[in-house]
Amino acid sequence: MPKLNIKEILDKTVDYFEKYDIAQPRLDAEVLLADLLDMERINLYVNFDRPLSPDEVDTYRELILKRRQGTPVAYLVGEKEFMGLKFKVNSDVLIPRPETEHLVQSILNRIDTWEEEEVKIADIGTGSGAIIISIAKLADKLVQGIAIDISESSLAIAQENAANLEVEEQLEFKEGNLLEPLDEKVDIIVSNPPYIPSGEIDGLQEEVQQEPSLALDGGQDGLDYYRKIIDQAVDYLTTDGLIIFEVGIEQSQDVADLLKKRNYSNIEIKKDYSDIERVVLAKYN
Ligand code: GLN
User: Fold this and answer.
1) Do the annotations mark residue 51 as ligand-binding?
2) Which keywords accompany this UniProt record (predicted)?
């Protein structure tokens, strides 16, 4: 059999993914092949005639099968871009989402307006570390961060990401439940907690279901972690300190109400790029 070249194998894969209703057939086919061949995606096009070795074809077939069976591309290639930075991911951590960039940007904007040269931030349920690491890397102030997660394996990934992106000296990593490992006050508490109502987990897209349920399941109404964090945070925010959350669809008002009940002030809700109310922030003083 003649050897398949890059163009031919991509075309075949796109057809195959289309048959199995993979949402972005060409993108996924290209990202997986570019990763396998260790080239930028754009270079696939320049090298359309390059033949693939039998080993490359075999490995690619395995990846394609896993993708068809629902494994997210980010887990197959082991990384995901977020805020223009590359984060290592595996199935121990939630894959960073584009809408979470909005949470990070809201914090960066806020920090910009502060007079202090140093800001201390705690990230509750850090996962891959995408939020706190991007802030540490991109803020124009010195950010000292505390990344907390109950999962030891996700903290290991977060730590590796911090090292790769050269911010490890700004960050501390603590294993534990929500704010329990904190032993000092901070200027900002940020969290993208699990917020999917338990009853909706089974109906999620197949690939989302391959992500850790520990990072998705927010209890019966999806708000369990907001309640706990909002309660605990009052003891750990500096005067005028900021609490800031990502929320799921139609949760913004509920979270704002929880904040009001606990006497937080200056509550603001911000929309994401798709016009969904996605970020809730408030002060405690
Ligand atoms: N944004 C994720 C999703 O909708 C959920 C993440 C979370 O629960 N914090 O798939």
Assistant:
1) no
2) Coiled coil, Methyltransferase, S-adenosyl-L-methionine, Transferase
Q: Per residue in 39-77, pLDDT tens?
A: 999 999 999 999 999 999 999 999 999 999 999 999 999
Measured in angstroms, how far is the CA atom of residue 23 from the centroid of ligand 1?
18
pLDDT, one tens digit per residue, over 89-105 is: 999 999 999 999 999 99
Same-domain status, 21 and 56: yes
Residue 217 CA: nearest ligand 1 atom is 8
The answer to the question of residue 138 being in a domain is yes
Give pairs for 67-70: CB < 8 Å, separation 24+.
67/17, 67/22, 67/28, 67/32, 68/16, 68/17, 68/20, 68/22, 70/206, 70/207, 70/209, 70/210
**Tens of pLDDT, residues 221-273:** 999 999 999 999 999 999 999 999 999 999 999 999 999 999 999 999 999 98
- Record the tokens describing residue 112, joined without a space: 């910009």
- Report yes or no on whether pTM surpasses 0.85: yes
Q: Which of 180, 66, 190, 206 is nearest to 123 (CA)?
A: 190
CB 119 within 8 A of CB 188: yes
- CATH code of the domain covering residue 191: 3.40.50.150
| Residue 44 sits in the same domain as residue 168 | no
Q: Are 182 and 155 in contact (CB under 8 A)?
A: no
- Residue 76 inside a domain? The answer is no
Within 6 A (CB) of ligand 1 lie 94, 97, 192-196, 208, 216
Q: Is residue 75 part of a domain?
A: no
